[in-house]
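note to self: the first set is below, dont mix up w the second
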Amino acid sequence: MADQQGLFSGSTPLAVRMRPASLDEVAGQRHLLTPGSPLVALARDASGTSGAVSVILWGPPGTGKTTLAQAIARSSGRRFVELSAVTAGVKDVRQVIDEARSSRDLYGVSTVLFLDEIHRFSKAQQDALLPGVENGWVVLVAATTENPSFSVVAPLLSRSLLLTLEQLSDDDLGVLIDRAVADPRGLKGAVELEDEARSAIIRLASGDARRALTALEAAAVIASAGPEPVVTAEIVASAVDRALLRYDRQGDEHYDVISAFIKSVRGSDVDASLHYLARMIEAGEDPRFIARRIMILAAEDIGMADPQALTLAVSAAEGVQLIGMPEGRILLAEAVVYLATAPKSNASYLALDRAIADVRAGRIGRVPIHLRDAHYPGAKRLGHGKGYRYAHDAPYSVAEQTYLPDELVGTRYYEPVGNGYEREVGPRLERLRALLEGRPMPQKAEPDDTTSGS
């Protein structure tokens, strides 16, 4: 059996043991680590006297936010304090700031305060950081997976430099994996990693370094228990049941994926639509949320080009409620395929927007007197209903009559496009408008088609 000394280092996970000791060991994020960049300058200011700016690191999980903070502290010789917004409160923050102030005044050592998940801090908790940041008592390195513009208070944001981390590339992950296999801090060469297994780990990691190293460690433990300490693709598959998608239902990834899903259906790319649907389902997204988006898509982006789309979307939503998951995914898939391949029109949606714009602008007018309610006592004495023509008494059940307020007569809100069912709606609408306005119907029209549904 292989030497397992590199596999079991107490209870410290491989991902923690392999954190870089300096910025030179950091994989990826090269756009933030160019010579003279704020992070490099922060790491090389060993005296801590250059007025280093606080930074907010924004990026997906596993891209190196904690790693960068620790590497900065180690490289610069600063005191490093780590807090998590999940467990820390205002008292903890004030204690760190007080200690940092004393350390600077008494020993000339500045403090890096790494605050993980700063978006979980309330406004009051974030405000408690301001004196320490503003006076330079601490160099704040805050990490967040959510957009700081929405999750960090403006005063703190304005006093910090916002740096965006990118998802790690496959090459970056490959470097990390190879290093972890050989490095004395890692597996110390206790196992051999096949190329297919390496590729499988990279694929499953989805740009997340922590996930890659966790999968490698789990696979290495299994491999070391066998006759040959070789990590194969099959061992990786057994160690990692499924790719845990980098998808936070409360964070940016949630909004990015649903945005891509909506735009893919609207853009008639059925394969992309199914891809994003699968990502949401596999990440455990609420199927009711997906179903609601599908109904909205049917009305907003397909509309009258295929009126059946909304009926099918509503049926899928009701079906998902009745049968639940995982079978409900089949109904969602059918609805998505139908919507993505259906003809598209947002004419109904735009028509309502135009009408709402007129109402908001005050272009409303009085209801025409012949359309007003004439049923209550005294209404007829006021002239309500006088001159109203009952539609079914007119040819084709369309009476020549004005329905819009006088100020809006002649306004056109709904303008059908030439896609799908609206190819037929357009000419019919022209015939209807001609009858309403007392104009001759278009010459190509067939009179008995005026109100037909075909």
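second set (the one i keep forgetting abt)
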Amino acid sequence: MPSLPLCWSQPLPELDTHTTELATERQGMLTKPRGSLGQLEQLAIQLAGLQRCEQPTVDPVRITVFAGDHGVCAEGVSAFPQEVTAQMIANFASGGAAISVLARELGATLEVVNLGTVGAVPDLPGVRDEQIAPATANLAVTEAMTDAQLHAALSSGDAAAERAAQAGCRLFIGGDMGIGNTTSAAAVACALLDEGAEKLAGPGTGLDTAGVAKKCEVIGRALARHGASRDPLAVLASLGGFEIAALAGAIMGSAARGIPVLVDGFIVSVAALVGVLRQPELRHWLIFAHRSAEPGHRAVLEALDAKPLLDLGMRLGEGSGAAVALPLLRSACALHNRMASFADAGVTDRDED
């Protein structure tokens, strides 16, 4: 059986407090009232401390979308058929998906990792074939993943982080694709947060009221089967998906390699929650892009003490919400690095008295 990536058991790099202090001092010297740029100031300070660099940057950016199918689809929990997962992988490769458009627009590198689909996926440019199985098992009746499958998915995510590090990337964005994955993510969140499905489960790809009720019933059965364990990796194996586990691996692996992570919506935030519960210091490496319209996302964000940058009613996944928020991080860095100080510009600072 493969072992866990080392980052799941070794300490993560710490925020550099000296650089954070220098960045905070610089913000106080720039030609603006202190605090007038709001969260943009804090973003620059956080990035400076994480990167141990007085002039932080988020470029180059790596976006990795992990895709996988879910056995729970046998319970009728999605408005879309399962073959859509494989079809969307092809759409990513051809450039027609939302994240494909956004990656091109933003000049970010995009890769797709296929962890296992029911539908066949041919060799496609930009798509890595790392299939573990055609799908997870049906989480309503049995463990979604074996230990070996869980470790393979975590390792796939860690390998994606290593590729990002080797390419010199300064920011990582993870995305997801998998019909049925909001059911899996909601089940994981319910188990980790000790909440009921009625609070955290939502429409996903567009379920009506009856469909959401069915989804809640399926998650309820899964939680009853799973029992009371809240160990993050045990919950992930029991109720998660290949792409959710790979996202957790990529998030942890990025932090271990000194790469900040811009966290997307509900699915990615659940993966981040798994990592933070396992290694609380991971939280420093996370910047939360947006608040998803999925109802469970609010509870996950609260558990992570996260204040997302945007609230646009998005619920697509793919990393699209994080991509939309990326220009805010670029703006934060540009303002921090390039604005003149009061002394440089010959502008009178405020009277400290």
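remember for set 2: Residues 58-330 form a domain with the Rossmann fold fold (CATH 3.40.50.10210).
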